[in-house]
Structure formats: C-alpha cells, structure tokens
C-alpha cells in the first residue's frame, strides 16, 4: 500500500509520513503483513464502490462492503492497542514495590533502634567490667581474707546479672528484616528485567503508530472515492471534509504517546534502580552488622563465663585476668558496631530520599 501512495505527486504533504511508513514496513514482518491485508481490504472496498458507480448509484451491498472494510481495519488497530494497553499502563506492580520498599526501610530503622538499645546495654556492661577491674586492682594489693575481693565480686555479679544484650527476639527481628530485603532485591531485579525487555522491544509499539497512520490513510482514500461517487452535494461535502483530515498529525500524536510511554518506562526503571542500589547497600550493612554482633556475642559469652568462674568458683584472679585479655577487643567491637549501625541508618535515609526524587522526576515528565 505504501509504495503507491509514496509515489503519488497529488499528495505531497504526506510524502514524508508515507516514506517513513514504507521504511517501517520493510523493517518489520508484522507490519508488512498488516500492510498487505490493509491493501487487500482497501482495494476490495474501492472495487465494491466502482461496481456501485456502474449503475450510477451506490448499492446497499457496496456500502456494506465499505463499512465492513473500515470496521475490519479499525478492529485490527484496536486489537494491537489492547494487546499493549495492559503492558503500558499496568503500573500497580511498581506502586506496590515502592510501598514495600518504604515499609522495609521503616522496619529496618526500627531494628536499628533495637540495636542501639543493645549497644547501650553492652556499654553499661563494659562500664561494670571497668569498675570491677578498678576494684580488683585496689583489693589485690590488700592482705588476704574471706572478703578480700568483695567489691570486685559485687561488680562481676552485676555484670553477670546484666546478661547478654542480644536476645533471641533481637536475632528474630534481624532475620526477618534481612529476609525482607533479600526478597525485595529479587522482586526489583525481576521488575527491572521486565522494564529492560519493554525498552528493548519499544520499536514494536511503534507498529501501532504505523498501523493507525496506514489505516487512516486508507479510510481517507475510500472516503475520497465515495465523495466522487455520491451525487448528493451535502453528502459529498461531508465525505470530502473527512478526506481532508491531516493524516500526518495522527502519526505525530501516536508518536507522542509512544514517546511518553518510553519516558514513563525509563522513569520506572530509574526508580527501580534507585531502590535496588538502596536495598543492596542495606543488605551489605546488615551483613556487616551480623558479623560484628556475632563477634561481640562470642566475647560477651566468654567474659560471662569468666565472671562466673570468679563469682561461683572463687577463682577471682584467673577470671579477672581472662576478662582483661578480652576487654580491649570487646570495647573495639562495640564502637565498630555503633559506627556500622550509623552507616546503615544513613544509607537508608539517603536511599529513601533518592527514590523519592526519582518518583517526583518521573511524575513530572
């Protein structure tokens, strides 16, 4: 269909659009098939009109032929658009992912608040140990006696009573938060793959623009034939007006829609990537936190055992000496864990801001 129209000097305003349509047909097998079908239907309709003109009037059958042709062409375009509609405007999944992302970030901030309480508990325990060691230095210089290390033992009992700051509930919350982020990362990767596929095959959606252009041009061609065949002036005038529709504007309008779609997909992808980066950072921070917590747990349990050795079995000197060996690493790990918790909190808040900026940017496009 495109070749005939492209070479028609009587229609120079549409030459560029027809040339672009020809190129699109050459590049796409589906569009070539559509074009072939459209040409057949258009020729059929015009032949039916010619048969009606032969008897100097449009027959009911010829008009029905034209109507059927137009309906079929419109249905073909509608079918393609409907195939694309759910894919183009179905953004509920993205909305739910964004909601889940922000909910996960809030839960992680709650976890970090729980971690901060554990660190406060650990620092209190550290203070009890330091006091116990200070008491031990003074009491160790005294003469022997049943109550020689009374104050040292009292502080060690306080340390022992304080127990492990990292409870089973703490680890349960940690596992839930970590698992949520890992699951979120998987969902984001899946969504990103879908968006990448949309962008890779965006040229397929441009078939819609070419189809509508070709179908509209065919309709105008048929209307022109009808206008020439109908005797009544007012009918001919109406059909001639239909034939004057600026076809190129239809193609430009569809191209504009597709460009908006492409921008929307790119905006969604930017949002997904921002959430991926933020989620990946938090997962890395949580893994570092877990390593430091495990290390701190080992040191705490060891010092509690040494405190028990001193309090329950009376081996004060041995217990205190063992605690001294571990105290420096214990204090260092508390500080490192505090820094890592702050890093995680900062990464979460920064990522939330970036995601919000991406959403606002996408909404304004």
UniProtKB/TrEMBL annotation:
Q: Which cellular component, as a GO term, is one annotated location?
A: membrane
Which keywords does this Swiss-Prot/TrEMBL entry list? Answer: Coiled coil, Membrane, Transmembrane, Transmembrane helix
**Compartments in which it is found:** Membrane
Question: Any coiled-coil ranges, and where?
Answer: 286-313
Membrane spanning stretches: 208-229
Say where the protein is mainly found: membrane
Which is one Pfam family of this protein? DUF677
Q: Which InterPro entries match?
A: DUF677
Q: Please state which protein family the record places this protein in.
A: Belongs to the UPF0496 family.
Q: This chain belongs to which protein, by name?
A: Uncharacterized protein
């Amino acid at each position: 269909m495109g070749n005939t129209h492209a070479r028609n000097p009587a229609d120079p305003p549409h030459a560029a659009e027809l040339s672009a349509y020809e190129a699109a047909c050459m590049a796409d097998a589906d569009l070539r098939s559509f074009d072939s079908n459209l040409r057949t239907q258009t020729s059929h309709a015009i032949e039916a009109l010619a048969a009606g003109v032969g008897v100097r009037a449009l027959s009911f059958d010829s008009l029905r032929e034209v109507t059927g042709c137009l309906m079929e062409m419109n249905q073909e375009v509608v079918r393609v658009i409907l195939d694309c509609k759910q894919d183009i405007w179905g953004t509920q999944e993205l909305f739910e992912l964004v909601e889940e992302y922000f909910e996960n970030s809030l839960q992680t901030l709650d976890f970090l608040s729980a971690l901060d309480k554990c660190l406060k508990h650990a620092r209190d325990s550290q203070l009890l140990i330091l006091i116990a060691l200070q008491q031990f230095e003074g009491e160790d210089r005294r003469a022997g006696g049943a109550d020689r290390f009374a104050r040292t033992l009292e502080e060690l009992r306080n340390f022992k009573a304080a127990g492990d700051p990292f409870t089973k509930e703490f680890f349960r919350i940690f596992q839930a938060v970590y698992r949520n982020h890992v699951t979120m990362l998987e969902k984001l990767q899946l969504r990103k793959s879908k968006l990448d596929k949309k962008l890779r095959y965006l040229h397929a959606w441009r078939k819609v623009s070419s189809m509508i252009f070709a179908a509209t041009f065919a309709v105008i061609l048929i209307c022109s034939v009808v206008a020439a065949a109908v005797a009544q002036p007012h009918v001919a005038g109406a059909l001639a007006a239909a034939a004057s529709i600026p076809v190129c504007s239809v193609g430009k309008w569809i191209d504009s829609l597709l460009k908006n779609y492409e921008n929307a997909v790119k905006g969604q992808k930017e949002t997904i990537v921002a959430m991926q980066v933020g989620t990946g950072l938090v997962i890395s921070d949580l893994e570092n936190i877990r390593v430091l917590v495990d290390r701190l747990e080992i040191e705490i349990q060891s010092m509690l055992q040494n405190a028990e050795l001193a309090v329950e079995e009376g081996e004060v000197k041995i217990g205190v000496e063992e605690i001294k060996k571990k105290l420096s690493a214990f204090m260092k790990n508390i500080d490192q864990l505090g820094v890592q918790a702050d890093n995680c909190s900062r990464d979460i808040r920064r990522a939330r801001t970036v995601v919000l900026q991406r959403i606002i940017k996408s909404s304004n496009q």
